[in-house]
Amino acid sequence: MRLHGSVSLLETVLLVLLAGRQQCVSADSDSLVSPEVLQHNGTMYAACKMKPSTSLPKGLPKVYGHVLFKQYHPHGDLEVLLRLNGLPGEDDQVPRAVHIHQYGDLSQGCDSTGGHYNPLNVHHPNHPGDFGNFVSQQGKIYALIESEATLFKGLSVIGRAVVIHEKRDDLGRGGDAGSLLHGNAGRRLACCVIGISSPSLWNRHFNKQPRRN
User: Fold this and answer.
1) Residues known to be catalytic
2) Radius of gyration from C-alpha coordinates of the chain
3) Which CATH fold topology does 35-212 show?
4) What is the per-residue pLDDT across 164-210, written as a single tens digit (0 to 9) for each?
5) Run of H or E residues at 68
6) In the chain, where are the structural domains located?
């Protein structure tokens, strides 16, 4: 029964139920995670199979391998495992820069991956995927690092690219515009697109005891 100028009891109950449902939906939306996270005890794994750029000039090293990712949901540190090979042995101890780039687009080799992934529009080397420099030993880079990048929510790096460069990253200290964009790291030797994976690759390579960078 509806009273003139007032809301009926039924309408009031419906409004209360609707408000409660909206709160539940909002809470559920915050807690929604990929089914892979639930399958792997709250942990997301991702993998990137590194291959030489198809636009690589002759004479530059052809780098192969994997870049692997592991992160506990929702606020765990992102661990990154690099296992790369193909660098010239005579160049051991020469630093090589590794970064996450904006696009997972390999249509023009590594040149179509765009610039550094920079969601907060800040200077290099403060991008979440600025991994820094790595030196090879016997032509291989084996390293385990922690990164400020994430596999979760809107700023996830899944679907973006990892690139290894010809030169060292000057870490923003080069004194020019390029330094603040990309660290003057030179040509893009190899790249790959980050995709969700099972734990198997991580477990296999992690058990080989990489050094922590």
Assistant:
1) 99, 101, 116, 124, 127, 130, 165, 188
2) 23
3) Immunoglobulin-like (2.60.40)
4) 999 999 999 999 999 999 999 999 999 999 999 999 999 999 887 55
5) strand 64-72
6) 1-32, 35-212
pLDDT in tens, 85-126: 999 988 888 899 999 999 999 999 999 999 999 999 999 999
**Short-list 192, 188, 184, 213, CA closest to 61:** 188
User: Cα(116)–Cα(188) distance, rounded to whole angstroms?
Assistant: 12
Give long-range contacts, CB 8 A cutoff, 24+ apart: 155-159.
155/119, 155/128, 157/46, 157/69, 157/100, 157/117, 157/128, 157/129, 157/194, 158/46, 158/194, 158/195, 158/196, 159/104, 159/193, 159/194, 159/195
In angstroms, the CA 123 to CA 139 distance is: 31
Pairing mode of beta strands 43-52, 188-193? antiparallel
Residues 6+ away with beta carbon under 8 Å from 52: 62, 63, 64, 86, 189, 190
Task: Check: CB of residue 142 under 8 Å from CB of residue 114.
Answer: no
Show the tokens assigned to 47: 């993998």
Task: Please state, in angstroms and rounded to a whole number, the distance separating the CA atoms of residues 130 and 132.
Answer: 6
